[in-house]
Input
Amino acid sequence: MATSTPTTDLPAAMIDTVVPASDWVIVLPIALALMGAAGLMMFRRSNGTPLIGAVIVVLAIIACEIALLLEVLANGPVSMTMGRWLPPFGISLTADIFGASFALAAAVVTLIVLFYAELDRADADGRDAFHPMVLLLLAGVTGAFLTGDLFNLYVWFEVMLIASFGLIVQGNRPLQLDGAVKYGFLNFLATTFFLMALGLLYGLLGTLNMADIMRVASAANPAAMAGVAALFMLAFGMKAAAFPVNAWLPASYHTPPAAISALFAGLLTKVGAYAMLRALVVVLPASRDMLEPVLACIAIGTLLIAPLGAIAETNLRRAIGFVVIGGIGAVIAGLSMPSLNGVAGSGLYIFHAILTMTALYMVAGLVEKTTGQTDTRHMGGLYAANAPLSILFILLVLASAGVPPFLGFWPKLLLLEAGLDQGVTGTAPGWLGTAMVLALLINAVLTLIAGTRLWAHVFWRSGPEGQGSEHGSVALKSFDNRGHLALGATTLLVAGIVVAGLWPGPLMDGVSAGAADILDPARYVEATGLAGDEL
Amino acid sequence: MEYILAALVGLFITIGTYLLLSRSVIRMLIGLTIFSNGVLLLIFTAGRLTQEVAPIVPEGLEVPEGAIANPLPQALILTAIVIGFSMFAFLLVLAFRAYQSLDADNTDTMRLAEPDNAPNPPLSY
Output
């Protein structure tokens, strides 16, 4: 700090050796996305180039992230420090299993959405810079998943936010401007709370490097640290749309074109949930223990309220927005029970939600395209017209409700085990675990009711509300080439979700190893080079 | 000095919160700006206030001779100011555009995304 004379001699604080080339895979995904966004901005008016360019860039990012994930699975967390300053002075990018696998899932989802987005882009002329914005959003999301520095995390949140501002107003309809005002104000307020927490944390500890905070946090005043952790909880809770601060999500996510809704649902709230996991469970575990009852109440509230909203809603994409919020409840449930099973359940749920929630919005967009309506009251009889679409939708409903053997079942199984173990091993009273188990089960049933009701209204009944079967179905539009491309992209993603659900072994092994690193971050700290020299 | 600045931070955040609770979008925007400026001042105060020399290492030395002011909070604030200003600019344009399109700068009358007269949930099934 300012008053102490520097004791570190210069060479010891600098990196003299060349970073091994294999470590570059951690910074390449972010650099590629940022440079790709800048490059495509220049070519945005040329016909076809933006899509091809964006696909190539995202494929390169996926290749780097697969290499990164294999490296992390084999040898533990990887860290690379920017500039020549050693941590905690230089900014570290640190990837563990959770961060690397979520970044990979986000890139895969982005690739699929790039093809799907052609559905709405028949008359787009590229002036709207859709593809550069998507790459910028991916850069922000990837950076947030891979960073090892809290202030850097704030910067990636803002990169993500400004890109999402640009995306949510694409199309420029009055409805979107309304949604964008609510989305913009509340998300900017959330990042301001995050910044406030950062300022206080820096004042208390004098460092913002995550690994360094883990070492020195125990020396600070526990009450002040709990206050900082509560601010983190508020900021990331708003980002993730957890129960008391979730109102912006159903007010805005249904307004942009379906491809953009899908991207937001898959990436943005999950980054908020991941940041909460990282900040509370990994970086400030002692403060998290103090906040455990609050986290449990937020989780139970989110789990119960969200699917009720989905049941009451008639607008298709707004109803799905409530399903997205319900998923966040499951993630926070794991944060309130930080046993191996609980954290593994949270991680696997984030992974599942990135894929499933994107796919749900993609199917909803296809339904809206076919019927020309956004409200389920004016839909009906789609099963006869488009059976593949109805199969995709019901599969995703089952996956998001957590019906075995679909992907959503496995994280919920881990969370239920964590809840049942809570009284035995956890610090909190046993009734909290029991309440969590009940909330998770009720959430599954309510989500199943909400989803199947949507399915019945859109696909199963013979016609829209007030019309009998003798009138036949409403005028349905058939797909053109772009529609078939979008349907193909959606089918591919749903097929991936089904396969992952039927063959969960590698995923379960992966998240168990990842959760072990989350609960005992010794390897994480060691990767940044901060282990050993105790203060 | 810290106490004065801490009180000022509190004042900024109070005014910002009060304006954010308004229905007028422009007042909300001003409130958000004052709120975030309060947060910037908070980072500045939390980084310790000193009357030391500027953090510049004299020529020929590798470390400064005595105590220096802490440059890191200023770097953090500078980053946050740039980001906050771009967000402010975007939200200002968005508010103006919403005023043109929706003919409303009152959040009570901006009800396109969440209709006021929302229908009852369907009773079938």
Remarks:
- Confidence is low (pLDDT under 50) at residues 1-10 of chain A.
